[in-house]
Amino acid sequence: MTTQWSSATLQRSLGDPTVTYPLWPPMTSGCPRTSTAEVSYPVEVDYAYDQVDPFLFATAAGRGGGLDRWAPLLPPLAAPGLGEGGTPLIEIEAGVFVKDESRNPTWSHKDRLNRCTVSAAVTTGAPGVVVASSGNHGASAAAYAARAGLRCVVVAGPELPPAVDSFLHAYGAVVLPVPWEARWPLTRKIVERTGLHPVSNLTTTHTGHAFGPEGYKTIAYEIHQDLGAPAAVFVPTAYGELLFGVWKGFTELRSLGLIDRLPRMYACQPTAAAPLAEAVRRGVPAAHVTVGHTEAYSIVSPVSGYRGVVAVEDSGGQVLELSDAQLEAAHGELARAGLWTELSSAAGLAGLRTVPDLDGPVVCISTSSGFKNRSVGSQSTKTVSPEWDDVRSRLHAAGIRD
Amino acid sequence: MTTQWSSATLQRSLGDPTVTYPLWPPMTSGCPRTSTAEVSYPVEVDYAYDQVDPFLFATAAGRGGGLDRWAPLLPPLAAPGLGEGGTPLIEIEAGVFVKDESRNPTWSHKDRLNRCTVSAAVTTGAPGVVVASSGNHGASAAAYAARAGLRCVVVAGPELPPAVDSFLHAYGAVVLPVPWEARWPLTRKIVERTGLHPVSNLTTTHTGHAFGPEGYKTIAYEIHQDLGAPAAVFVPTAYGELLFGVWKGFTELRSLGLIDRLPRMYACQPTAAAPLAEAVRRGVPAAHVTVGHTEAYSIVSPVSGYRGVVAVEDSGGQVLELSDAQLEAAHGELARAGLWTELSSAAGLAGLRTVPDLDGPVVCISTSSGFKNRSVGSQSTKTVSPEWDDVRSRLHAAGIRD
């Protein structure tokens, strides 16, 4: 396949925007010149915006084409796609829209990131990718690697949920569940020894892959096409990559003169694991916290990254901390609207419910499918009697009358 | 919400096309005038094609808008949508395209049908819907009913897979697992006694809901937009509703002068449950068979319906019978292309692999996500040692060298 034209020019440090690097190789351990022993600063991608067709947004019609239609504003998409992106925006009540990211190839938002990071692996000639993950990120990386004919190694935590295990193996990934404390050192060692391209984080505070959040920008482009600029976007947040990507997409739309104002970016974290909230409170680029219990396993992290701070502060947004009870309530609300999500994915709507008086339509990003909840499969409805009197009483209990 | 304009005019019998019925109420037990004790004939929907905007197909650009953009050629869409349809067509090898229907709101093709059937329930003022299903159909009906504010009763078989149980309960459905032989009589009784609108079959040979396959037509419209008319379409088949819907969509495109030839329609059934193959072989409208063992649970049926015969014979297609080994091989092939599907969903590609020499591009419809396989969760990779020598030997075994 021919890689479509990209206007990407170089990599730029978030720690100091005057510090730049060539576009290749992709920075997978943040910015070495500005990072310290305590804080790692991420790197982002710059583009020659003045060389991009000014009608790109006018002609990239409807939902067709996935990420490829935005190729000029993304790093080179050298890995073949799976029709990622182009997810629907569903109005669940007047002015409240849900961006349903469970409609991606591996049923989560991570596919937008992995199209970009696996493309980097292809371009650099790596034999495959390695990812530290026990969930959506690993499965998505495995799918894109399979599609590109690359190997994928997933370094997982112990007690990998069995459904995720099936998911990862389906794509032919090498799955290595190891004790928690061994995950990051082992991932680093695999990168050093084998040349596999890392598509997850390698640093003390979160930086991840320089190209990853670029894929998430397309969520902003799609929201803009369907709705214009909303007043606010509510984003389930662990490291803040998704949050930053969506924010960056809207800043580009503003620079290109397509919108007047940025939506406020609301980072939605579980109270039990809210390092970004801690960083913003303390006015530091990133923070570490002790993680408590929450069922929202996809947005649990003991450490944040500087990207999240940038997105929240620049947009006039906020970090919201949510209890599992609040997440459960929003999860139920989404299901009653016909959207069965991961518990983590309901954090956006749960966050919205805590913020009064927003000036215009709002978007809650729902990241993934209900099939990925840990509780799936624990339900077991017993066979019931088909006698009419028995059925009738069950129907009556549910408010259905004969 | 305002229902968009529909050109639907009346219902017409497949048993005798001169027999018609008004559009309302929807026929949910086939055509009473032509059906016999042995064979039930389905009913389909007619449209005033000459009143439809001739530029409908030219202006319904890209993937945007789900089913709503085709509203003029569908029964009235009175139930709110969930962004169903608009699924991507992915080229897994030169000329072989997979239509990935796992990208629908409940992650299967059934959402296209249920948008139409739940709309019928809304229009007729029913308090809710009832569906006999232990899988995708039930979950989809439950989601659309929830979205429309209607109740949903799912009459399931015994030993409902636990993941499906979670899925159905998430949307607030009343789940009634009963012994197999009680499913159809109980469904009928619930319809008679409660006025719930049936969205699955009620007759001896399969007829289902008159409006259901109309939703599947949109798959043909989308394939046409992305690719034109393929040489053939391979469809996982149980009752033949999906097969018929896709065929009907292409016949409409031909009538409207948008394509010259119909794709050959290949019905792909498990050898263990191939009633349509039996009906075509014997030259009868529908057949009953004894079902053997197959893991492809979503396309297991002991009985076929006349719709399947129409689609296969009119298009010059064929019914293909596939062993579980053939299904597994195609399932593996899809996963290696980055598409993790239900085993049943791989029947399309498995069928293609048995047919040599097709004159042009072909489409295999993949109906649903790998998360719905019965085997999901049975995998359990043990925690491994993070010592480099141990990891190294695992990587070597997978062909990854240091």
Automatic annotation (TrEMBL), chains A, B:
Keyword presence, Ribonucleoprotein: no
InterPro entries from the UniProt entry: Ser/Thr_Dehydratase, TrpB-like_PALP, TrpB-like_PALP_sf
Keywords assigned by UniProt, alphabetized: Lyase, Pyridoxal phosphate
Pfam families referenced in this protein's UniProt entry, alphabetically: PALP
Record bears the keyword Flavoprotein: no
Top-level taxon of origin: Bacteria
Signal peptide residue numbers: none
Occurrences of domain Tryptophan synthase beta chain-like PALP (ranges): 82-366
Named cofactor requirement(s): pyridoxal 5'-phosphate
Listed name of the protein: Threonine synthase
